[in-house]
Protein backbone atom coordinates (compact mmCIF):
# COMPACT_ATOMS: atom_id res chain seq x y z
CA UNK A 1 0.00 0.00 0.00
CA UNK A 2 1.21 3.50 -0.83
CA UNK A 3 1.42 5.88 2.12
CA UNK A 4 -0.25 9.30 1.72
CA UNK A 5 1.90 12.23 2.88
CA UNK A 6 0.54 15.60 3.97
CA UNK A 7 2.64 18.75 3.74
CA UNK A 8 1.67 22.16 5.11
CA UNK A 9 3.59 25.41 4.91
CA UNK A 10 3.13 29.17 5.09
CA UNK A 11 4.06 32.02 2.79
CA UNK A 12 3.37 35.73 2.55
CA UNK A 13 0.69 37.29 0.35
CA UNK A 14 2.26 37.73 -3.10
CA UNK A 15 0.39 41.03 -3.65
CA UNK A 16 1.91 42.46 -0.49
CA UNK A 17 5.34 41.18 -1.48
CA UNK A 18 5.04 42.85 -4.90
CA UNK A 19 4.21 46.19 -3.28
CA UNK A 20 7.11 45.80 -0.85
CA UNK A 21 9.63 44.82 -3.55
CA UNK A 22 8.63 47.79 -5.74
CA UNK A 23 9.93 50.07 -2.97
CA UNK A 24 13.28 48.27 -2.61
CA UNK A 25 16.49 47.87 -4.53
CA UNK A 26 17.45 44.31 -5.41
CA UNK A 27 19.96 44.26 -2.55
CA UNK A 28 17.31 45.46 -0.09
CA UNK A 29 14.95 42.74 -1.31
CA UNK A 30 17.66 40.12 -0.62
CA UNK A 31 18.16 41.54 2.89
CA UNK A 32 14.41 41.26 3.56
CA UNK A 33 14.39 37.70 2.20
CA UNK A 34 17.30 36.75 4.48
CA UNK A 35 15.29 38.09 7.45
CA UNK A 36 12.29 35.99 6.38
CA UNK A 37 10.26 39.06 5.44
CA UNK A 38 8.43 38.46 2.17
CA UNK A 39 8.49 34.68 1.75
CA UNK A 40 7.13 34.06 -1.74
CA UNK A 41 4.78 31.18 -2.55
CA UNK A 42 7.35 29.47 -4.79
CA UNK A 43 10.08 29.78 -2.16
CA UNK A 44 7.86 28.17 0.47
CA UNK A 45 6.53 25.52 -1.92
CA UNK A 46 9.94 24.28 -3.02
CA UNK A 47 11.65 24.95 0.32
CA UNK A 48 14.74 26.99 -0.50
CA UNK A 49 16.42 29.87 1.34
CA UNK A 50 18.88 32.59 0.51
CA UNK A 51 22.34 32.02 2.01
CA UNK A 52 24.23 35.03 0.68
CA UNK A 53 24.24 37.60 -2.09
CA UNK A 54 26.46 40.26 -3.59
CA UNK A 55 26.37 42.60 -6.55
CA UNK A 56 25.41 40.27 -9.39
CA UNK A 57 25.62 37.09 -7.30
CA UNK A 58 23.30 34.94 -5.19
CA UNK A 59 23.56 31.67 -3.29
CA UNK A 60 20.57 29.59 -2.25
CA UNK A 61 20.23 26.39 -0.25
CA UNK A 62 17.58 23.74 -0.93
CA UNK A 63 16.99 20.44 0.81
CA UNK A 64 15.52 17.93 -1.66
CA UNK A 65 12.13 16.65 -0.52
CA UNK A 66 9.74 14.04 -1.83
CA UNK A 67 7.24 16.80 -2.71
CA UNK A 68 9.64 17.78 -5.54
CA UNK A 69 10.01 14.30 -7.00
CA UNK A 70 8.62 12.37 -9.95
CA UNK A 71 7.31 8.77 -9.59
CA UNK A 72 10.87 7.42 -10.03
CA UNK A 73 12.18 9.02 -6.83
CA UNK A 74 14.15 11.67 -8.75
CA UNK A 75 13.65 15.42 -8.46
CA UNK A 76 11.37 16.56 -11.27
CA UNK A 77 12.86 18.86 -13.90
CA UNK A 78 10.34 21.62 -13.06
CA UNK A 79 11.65 22.29 -9.54
CA UNK A 80 15.23 22.06 -10.81
CA UNK A 81 14.49 24.62 -13.53
CA UNK A 82 12.74 26.83 -10.96
CA UNK A 83 15.80 26.78 -8.69
CA UNK A 84 18.07 27.64 -11.63
CA UNK A 85 15.69 30.38 -12.85
CA UNK A 86 15.47 31.87 -9.36
CA UNK A 87 19.24 32.00 -8.91
CA UNK A 88 19.87 33.42 -12.38
CA UNK A 89 17.09 36.01 -12.03
CA UNK A 90 17.81 37.11 -8.48
CA UNK A 91 21.49 37.52 -9.40
CA UNK A 92 20.26 40.10 -11.94
CA UNK A 93 17.91 41.63 -9.36
CA UNK A 94 20.81 42.26 -6.95
CA UNK A 95 22.15 44.80 -9.47
CA UNK A 96 18.89 46.72 -9.88
CA UNK A 97 17.81 49.97 -8.20
CA UNK A 98 14.50 50.67 -6.47
CA UNK A 99 11.51 50.58 -8.81
CA UNK A 100 13.19 48.18 -11.22
CA UNK A 101 12.57 44.47 -11.65
CA UNK A 102 13.09 41.75 -14.20
CA UNK A 103 11.34 38.93 -15.97
CA UNK A 104 12.90 35.88 -17.56
CA UNK A 105 13.03 35.95 -21.35
CA UNK A 106 14.61 32.53 -21.68
CA UNK A 107 16.18 29.79 -19.61
CA UNK A 108 18.34 27.08 -21.09
CA UNK A 109 18.89 24.32 -18.55
CA UNK A 110 21.07 21.23 -18.52
CA UNK A 111 20.38 18.34 -16.15
CA UNK A 112 23.69 16.60 -15.49
CA UNK A 113 22.96 14.11 -12.67
CA UNK A 114 19.82 12.81 -10.98
CA UNK A 115 18.88 14.45 -7.68
CA UNK A 116 17.42 12.08 -5.07
CA UNK A 117 16.81 12.21 -1.32
CA UNK A 118 20.31 10.74 -0.91
CA UNK A 119 21.86 13.68 -2.79
CA UNK A 120 21.62 15.86 0.31
CA UNK A 121 21.49 19.66 0.45
CA UNK A 122 21.71 21.54 -2.83
CA UNK A 123 23.66 24.74 -3.28
CA UNK A 124 22.27 26.92 -6.03
CA UNK A 125 24.45 29.79 -7.27
CA UNK A 126 23.64 32.47 -9.79
CA UNK A 127 25.79 35.22 -11.28
CA UNK A 128 25.39 37.93 -13.87
CA UNK A 129 27.64 37.46 -16.89
CA UNK A 130 26.52 40.54 -18.83
CA UNK A 131 24.52 43.45 -17.45
CA UNK A 132 22.71 46.12 -19.40
CA UNK A 133 19.99 48.75 -19.10
CA UNK A 134 17.28 46.63 -20.77
CA UNK A 135 18.65 43.08 -20.90
CA UNK A 136 20.97 41.08 -18.66
CA UNK A 137 22.45 37.61 -19.09
CA UNK A 138 23.18 35.35 -16.14
CA UNK A 139 24.06 31.77 -15.33
CA UNK A 140 23.23 29.39 -12.51
CA UNK A 141 24.37 26.01 -11.25
CA UNK A 142 23.27 23.45 -8.70
CA UNK A 143 25.90 21.48 -6.81
CA UNK A 144 25.81 18.88 -4.05
CA UNK A 145 27.74 19.06 -0.77
CA UNK A 146 30.82 17.60 -2.52
CA UNK A 147 30.74 20.35 -5.13
CA UNK A 148 29.60 18.07 -7.99
CA UNK A 149 27.57 19.91 -10.61
CA UNK A 150 24.08 18.51 -10.89
CA UNK A 151 22.48 21.08 -13.23
CA UNK A 152 23.37 24.34 -14.98
CA UNK A 153 21.50 27.06 -16.84
CA UNK A 154 21.91 30.30 -18.72
CA UNK A 155 19.22 32.95 -18.69
CA UNK A 156 18.34 36.20 -20.37
CA UNK A 157 16.30 38.66 -18.32
CA UNK A 158 14.35 41.71 -19.44
CA UNK A 159 14.81 44.64 -17.05
CA UNK A 160 11.64 46.64 -16.47
CA UNK A 161 10.02 49.29 -14.27
CA UNK A 162 7.83 47.91 -11.47
CA UNK A 163 5.44 49.43 -8.98
What report would you give on this structure?
This protein has 163 residues and is of the alpha+beta class. The chain is 26% helix and 34% strand. The chain is built from four helices and six strands. It has helices at 14-22, 26-35, 41-46, 77-93, and strands spanning 48-54, 57-62, 100-111, 122-130, 135-143, 149-161. Strands 1-2-4-5-6-3 form a six-stranded antiparallel beta sheet. Strand 5 (135-143) and strand 6 form a beta hairpin. The longest helix has 17 residues, at 77-93. The mean pLDDT is 95.
Keywords:
alpha+beta
Distance between the termini: 51 Å
> How many DSSP H or I helices?
4
Shape: globular
Write the element-wise H/E pattern from the N-terminal end onward. Answer: HHHEEHEEEE
Mean pLDDT: 95
Name the structural class. alpha+beta
Q: In percent, how much strand structure appears in the residues? A: 25-35%
> Uncertain segments of ≥5 residues (pLDDT<50)?
none
The strand order across the widest sheet is 1-2-4-5-6-3
How many strands in all? 6
What Rg, in angstroms, do the CA atoms define?
16 Å
Q: Can you give the helix content as a percent range?
A: 25-40%
* Largest sheet data: 6 strands, antiparallel
Amino acid sequence: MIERITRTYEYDDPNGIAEQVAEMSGAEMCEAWMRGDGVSPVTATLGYDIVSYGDGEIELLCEPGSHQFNPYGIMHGGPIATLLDTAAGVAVHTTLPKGTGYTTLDLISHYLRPITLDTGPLTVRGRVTSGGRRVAVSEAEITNADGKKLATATSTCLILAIG
